């Protein structure tokens, strides 16, 4: 009968109900569908923006071409106006004028005599063009009859139908070329281009943020499910044990020895329930920022010794050895007794949970210029490098592989970090798989104004 009562809680502690398979399947399908839809939508928006920029650049080039042609028609009218008097010239800059007809020679002489740069600038500005051109006049064989020095190296560009613009002056062609046309057109589109780039970058940033948020939500959902599963399992065990022990105590056939056993079981399981609730409450308070510190002068060495003393029975039961190397010269700090005690209990408890055979825990203190450092070293299973940066996150639990007897909710180290930060200190971790873990608590002599006000 005694054995049956002891085994009964194990039968009752069945795993809790998990998320319905239909809901999990729907969520698993919905998220990839959402990510795929967002990816397609972003690519479509980017394609539309690129297509709009190309269309805008093409349209602006067409408008520019039309404006240049209209400007050249105005210049041609000025150069061939019949009412202008014959311009006399010393013919020093005329090229091959002997081969030209009198009317063509007159046009060339006018180009030599007129300030062509100014005429072109005026004609182009009337059409809203501020680009600087090079120009020249050519006969029917493509030979220059008027070519300024700055255009001599660009003769091929002037004659090219792709890069040059022309207007007919009798049998002559007056041609212009804009060496910096791409930069000029891009400058006109700079505002629209910059806006498009900013919009695309903004869309990409929002998309990336959304993906990260989705992944974080999935991870948080998984962690919360694990927390609920672990918490419910942990709560069911002592509740079942207390219920069965209570029923057993009501049996008049039990003697005093059996009753003492069940009373002891009820007390132990009740303590477990209190610890579980306290862990969740501490995590909730630290996360919401509602933690209140009641600072008082305390000796860190005395706190460590008291914690180890209170855990002596458990340490002895597990065969753990705690070595104290408290060498700090001034261990007196302003601390909150309850929270710092909880931190020490938590860290020693973790060292025992993840210990291998013959747990060995070394607690070492050393003085620092700003306060005191407390190192808690164990010879446990250690933590892989990829998990070290996450162990202080709320709800995060390091995978333990084949170690199935480790219980917890991923709340302990996040609570430790919050307590240390509220004291104005910090916590650091160093670990190697199979070689143990060392946690370093840095506690300052003085807390900041923000910490004191907390």
Entry keywords:
five-stranded mixed sheet; 454 residues; alpha+beta
In short:
The protein has 454 residues and is α+β, with helices and mostly antiparallel strands. It contains 14 helices and 11 strands.
Radius of gyration: 43 Å
The general outline is elongated
Mean pLDDT, to the nearest integer, reads 76
Strand elements, count:
11
- Summed up, the helix count is 14
Helix content: 55-70%
| Strand arrangement, major sheet | 6-8-9-11-10
Structural class: alpha+beta
Reading the helices and strands in chain order gives HHHHEEHEEHHHEHHEEHEEHHEEH
Structure description:
The protein has 454 residues and is of the alpha+beta class. The protein is built from 14 helices and eleven strands. It has helices at residues 2-12, 21-80, 102-113, 116-126, 155-159, 181-188, 190-249, 256-288, 300-310, 312-318, 337-353, 385-388, 412-422, 449-453; strands spanning 134-138, 144-146, 164-169, 172-177, 295-299, 321-326, 332-336, 360-367, 371-378, 426-432, 436-444. The strands form three sheets. Strands 6-8-9-11-10 form a five-stranded mixed beta sheet, covered by helices on one side. Strands 2-1-4-3 form a four-stranded antiparallel beta sheet. A hairpin with a 3-residue loop joins strand 10 and strand 11 (436-444). Helix 2 packs antiparallel against helix 7 (190-249). The radius of gyration is 43 Å and the shape is elongated. The model is unreliable at 1-19, 21-26, 83-98, 402-410 and 449-454 (pLDDT under 50).
């Amino acid at each position: 009968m005694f054995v049956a009562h002891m085994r009964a809680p194990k039968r009752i502690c069945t795993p809790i109900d998990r998320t319905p398979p239909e809901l999990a399947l729907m969520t698993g399908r919905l998220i990839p569908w959402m990510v795929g839809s967002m990816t397609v939508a972003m690519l479509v928006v980017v394609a539309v923006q690129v297509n709009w920029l190309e269309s805008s650049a093409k349209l602006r080039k067409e408008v520019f071409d039309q404006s240049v042609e209209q400007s050249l028609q105005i210049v041609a009218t000025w150069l061939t106006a019949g009412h202008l008097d014959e311009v006399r010239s010393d013919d020093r800059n005329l090229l091959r004028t002997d081969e030209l007809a009198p009317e063509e020679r007159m046009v060339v002489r006018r180009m030599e005599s007129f300030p062509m740069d100014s005429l072109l600038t005026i004609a182009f500005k009337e059409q809203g063009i501020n680009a600087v051109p090079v120009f020249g006049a050519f006969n029917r064989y493509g030979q220059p009859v008027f070519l300024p020095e700055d255009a001599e190296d660009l003769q091929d560009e002037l004659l090219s139908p792709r890069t040059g613009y022309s207007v007919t002056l009798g049998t002559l062609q007056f041609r212009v070329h804009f060496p910096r046309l791409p930069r000029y057109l891009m400058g006109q589109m700079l505002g629209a281009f910059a806006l498009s780039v900013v919009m695309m970058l903004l869309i990409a940033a929002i998309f990336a943020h959304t993906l990260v948020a989705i992944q974080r939500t999935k991870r948080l959902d998984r962690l919360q499910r694990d927390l609920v599963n672990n918490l419910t399992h942990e709560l069911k065990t002592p509740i079942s044990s207390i219920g069965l022990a209570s029923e057993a105590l009501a049996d008049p056939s039990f003697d005093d020895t059996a009753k003492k056993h069940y009373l002891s079981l009820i007390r132990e399981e009740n303590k477990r329930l209190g610890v579980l609730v306290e862990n969740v409450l501490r995590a909730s308070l630290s996360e919401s920022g509602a933690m209140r510190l009641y600072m008082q002068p305390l000796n860190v060495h005395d706190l460590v010794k008291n914690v180890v003393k209170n855990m002596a029975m458990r340490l002895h039961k597990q065969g753990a050895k705690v070595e104290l190397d408290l060498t700090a010269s001034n261990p007196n700090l302003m601390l909150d007794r309850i929270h710092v005690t909880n931190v020490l209990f938590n860290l020693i408890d973790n060292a025992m949970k993840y210990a291998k055979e013959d747990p060995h825990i070394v607690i070492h203190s050393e003085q620092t210029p700003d306060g005191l450092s407390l190192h808690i070293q164990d010879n446990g299973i250690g933590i892989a490098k990829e998990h070290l940066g996450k162990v202080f996150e709320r709800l995060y639990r390091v995978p333990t592989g084949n170690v199935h007897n480790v219980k917890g909710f991923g709340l302990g180290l996040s609570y430790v970090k919050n307590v240390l930060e509220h004291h104005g200190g910090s916590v650091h971790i160093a670990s190697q798989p199979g070689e143990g873990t060392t946690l370093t608590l840095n506690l300052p002599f003085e807390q900041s104004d923000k910490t004191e006000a907390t």
